[in-house]
Amino acid sequence: LTSGAMTTAIKKAAASAGKNPRLYGTHSMRSGGATAMFVSGVDRLVIKHFGRWRSDCYEQYTRMDGATISNLSSKMVGIDPIQAARTDTHRLMGPLHAPRRTPRLEFLTALNILTTAPKRAI
């Protein structure tokens, strides 16, 4: 799979998900992959290895979702996240649940469909 073919597949997936294809490329995959590993609790050395980063610049690629931030806030104040869900303070920070389906997830789903679908004869 060439870089150009991957870029084309990503842009087609973005367009089929109703997104502007000019805003997506192979960089989106690096950012999404680093973020998914980070949110899943993967060790930073593993993230660096799989992203082929030699420095800590991978940290610029990761994004935290609302659930991760809520979990972190609860840990910082020493509150069990389950217990925190029952407090008024936690309600101000947002619910502790899986994030809603995001455009990035829809985009990755469309990309998976494009890259795994059998090729049709023309």
From TrEMBL:
Native organism: Phytophthora megakarya
PANTHER family from the UniProt entry: DNA ADENINE METHYLTRANSFERASE, PHAGE_INTEGRASE DOMAIN-CONTAINING PROTEIN
Record-given protein name: Tyr recombinase domain-containing protein
Keyword Chaperone: no
Superkingdom per UniProt: Eukaryota
GO MF terms held by the record: DNA binding
UniProt GO BP: DNA integration; DNA recombination
Coiled-coil annotated residue ranges, if any: none
Keywords: DNA recombination
